[in-house]
Amino acid sequence: MGQSLSIHNLEAWYGSNKILKGINMEIRPNQVTAIIGPSGCGKSTFVRCINRMHETLPRTRVRGEISLDGRSIYDLNPVALRKTVGMVFQKANPFPSMSIYDNVVAGLRLNGMKNKQELKASAEKSLRMAALWDEVKDRLNYSGMSLSGGQQQRLCIARALAVEPSVLLMDEPASALDPIATTHIEELIRSLKEIYTIIIVTHNMQQAARIADSTAFFLSGELVEHGPTSEIFTNPHDKRTEDYITGRFG
Amino acid sequence: MEESENMSNKKKLTASLGDKTFRLLTLLMAMSVLALMVWIGWQMVDSARPSIAKFGFTFVIGRVWDPVKEQFGALPFIYGTLVTSFLALIIAAPVGLGVAIFLNEMATSKVRSVIGFLVEMLAAIPSVVYGLWGIFILAPWLRETVEPGLAKWFGFIPLFQGTPLGFSMLAGGLILAVMILPTIASISREVMAAVPNEQREAALALGATKWEMIRIAVLPYAKSGILGGVMLGLGRALGETMAVTMVIGNRPDILSSLFAPAYSIAAVIANEFTEATSDLYLSALVEIGLILFGITLILNVFARLLVWSVERGPKGGISS
Fold it and tell me: Each residue of B179-199: pLDDT tens digit?
């Protein structure tokens, strides 16, 4: 099941550059939350703080509190946290030396799962959830690189799902894909929210409108407005949100 | 009007002429390398002819090297060269890889630049200086400390039996290991630095620890390049002359113990070239050089095949 997140006064730096300037946000379980905003507003950094990926880069710093179902993520080992909070990246990044199957079960193997039957069952389940099973079931031992861009991204989603996280972070997962592949991914996201809490960064407002239950608008490292998607797009409270969604800037 | 058209035509003509000349020039340079190779090869075969005619294949498998009786067999030199080179590889490959992993994935940028510089400095030390260090420090240390110790604990293995002399295949292998370490380390480091960060993040996001990330994302991506670096190191070890000559003991014997003195191909050529008075002696030395040439060639082909087979990976991949 999905878990809820609550974020208090989150600040993040990259070198001397303050990217997040005190974010407060509540994210409800089993919902799709979209993060929108112009380039450089800190939306990527925000999701990368949730699985503590931001701090793996040199010269970065994070301050504030993030809790997962009421428990601080900083009480957890980052390695353990990332098994609960999965992530899909902007650019599909399957492991090129591994087959499709090995890619999907890579995380499970890291967790020490060795039983072939279990691995196989889990791979099939994850690939089905990622709506990729029918396309790859006959060539699981082919390289992940033999797939198209959209398929590679769904493979990466399957790989993230296989470790059974409760939260799934997606950093512009469809920005490098064509419209048909994008549609696939969007349908997938809508179906996955029954099991996962999903946070998706997107610079495509139509995409946010199509798939998200709630939407947050970031600007210059601040959270301007967060509410039900319909409200953000039809009746924003903040002037800046209105300017952005009506295309007056960004 | 007409004049300017003329001008542009002229310009086009000179441009295409320039391209052609340039093409020809670079082709000539590329061909000169090929010609040089063929020429050297042919010269060597030609000069080695007396020895090839006299000994035939027994030259390669002969164990006796006696210039006085004009009896020449190259096997001890082939043996010494291969043993010291592989010993160097076995030591330097894991250490070099470890250095590269540490510098790339673990070290802070300050430590990285200091240690990285020092490792590259190892490559800048002249071979003869390594040899001197080998004679005055490494060999006595092996004789008094390392070899007796190895004989005590691992003496039941034939590799570690016999009198500790210091000047030995072990000394040759160790000195070569130090000399090829920078090659392996710096090439491994470069190919690992070329691994996209997305690959590392993909592993971390699945809950990989740092070591697991290196194992599943960094090393597989870089493996063919690392293998290439190791092979380049091996090539250097096979041909290294001065430092090995100074520590290997220079005795054309085939003994199983690493403590025993031996001889390498490069060393025998360097040592005996000036005293080779008869034609047969000289041509035997040239032939032994030809063998070194052949060994290097075979190992390089083998390395290519190896790189090619690890690159292939699963079906439908980028390079299959």
Answer: 999 999 999 999 999 999 999
Instruction: Report the alpha-carbon distance of residue B172 to residue B127 in Å, rounded.
Output: 12
Look at residue A177 in the predicted model and tell me its pLDDT.
82
* 3-state SS class at B250: coil
| Residue A93 to residue B196, Cβ atoms within 8 A | yes
DSSP secondary structure, A111-164, as one string: TT---HHHHHHHHHHHHHHTT-HHHHTT-TTBBGGGS-HHHHHHHHHHHHHHT-
* Chain B residues with beta carbon closer than 8 angstroms to that of A106: 203, 206, 216
CB contact under 8 A, B220 and A102: no
Distance from C-alpha of B102 to C-alpha of B97, rounded to nearest angstrom: 9
pLDDT tens column, A1-51:
789 999 999 999 998 999 999 999 999 999 999 999 998 899 999 999 999
Structural domain count of chain A: 1
| Angle A212-A169-A241 from CA coordinates, rounded to 5° | 45
Q: Is residue A75 part of a domain?
A: yes
Contact A143 B318 (CB under 8 A): yes
Question: Domain of A72: which CATH number?
Answer: 3.40.50.300
Range of the domain at A241: 5-94+165-245
Exposed / middle / buried, residue A203 (Cβ in 10 Å: 0-12, 13-18, 19+): middle
- For chain A, the average pLDDT equals 92
- Reading phi first (left if > 0) and then psi (alpha if -120 to 50, else beta), residue A66 is in beta
C-beta atoms of A95 and B220 within 8 A: yes
Question: Do A73 and A32 meet the contact criterion of CB atoms below 8 Å apart?
Answer: no
Q: Is the Cβ pair B207, A80 closer than 8 Å?
A: yes
By DSSP bridging, strand A167-171 and strand B71-72 are unpaired
Closest-CA residue of chain A to B210: A79
- Which residue in chain B has the smallest CA separation from A99? B314
Choose the closest CB to A89 out of B198, B209, B317.
B198
Question: Would residue A110 count as lying in a domain?
Answer: no
Averaged pLDDT for residues B10-14: 73
What confidence category does residue B319 fall into, taking pLDDT thresholds of 50, 70 and 90? Answer: very low
Beta-carbon contacts of A206 under 8 Å, excluding residues fewer than 6 positions away, are none
Quick check: is A49 in a domain? Answer: yes
User: Is there a domain that residue A117 lies in?
Assistant: no
For chains A and B, CB pairs below 8 A equal 97
* Distance in angstroms (rounded) separating the CA atoms of residues B171 and B144: 13
The strand pair at A197-201 and A32-36 is best described as: parallel
Beta bridge partners of A35: A201, A216
**DSSP sequence for B142-173:** IIIIIHHHHHHHHTTSGGG-S---SSSHHHHH
Distance to chain A for B232, nearest Cα, Å: 23
- The alpha carbons of chain A give a radius of gyration, in whole angstroms, of 18
